[in-house]
Design goal:
Length: about 120
């Protein structure tokens, strides 16, 4: 099994910055991709940013130029640097990872979610 542990959420004023971290541990052979999703009250969960193959990144249009996703392969950790935060960035941020593990006889790929961390941006 694999566990994702997130940290770094909190309360910040508009225009401020926060850095989220997500560390994966457990039965990891290879990490295909890691990313961050967020869910605002009454809204669906949406992709914020994703990093795959170690360097390929993808961002939601709403955060381009303000957020930066990066990874530390040695630590199986992904970071989300959030700057110029806006009240509409408020929500629960969830880490997601697509991970290859080695079973008794086969390799298998599975998606995992973290427990979520609250980000609140006040106006």
């Amino acid at each position: 099994q694999v566990q994702l542990v997130e940290s770094g959420g909190g309360l910040v004023q508009a225009g401020g910055s926060l850095r989220l971290s997500c560390a994966a541990s457990g039965s990891i052979f290879e990490i295909n991709a890691m990313g961050w999703y967020r869910q605002a009250p009454g809204k669906q969960r949406e992709l914020v940013a994703q990093i795959s193959s170690g360097t390929k990144t993808n961002y939601a249009d709403s955060v381009k130029g303000r957020f930066t996703i990066s990874g530390d392969n040695a630590k199986n950790t992904v970071y989300l640097q959030m700057s110029s935060l806006k009240p509409e960035d408020t929500g629960v941020y969830y880490c997601n990872a697509n991970i290859v593990s080695k079973g008794a006889h086969l390799y298998y790929t599975k998606g995992y979610w973290g427990q979520g961390t609250q980000v609140t941006v006040s106006s």
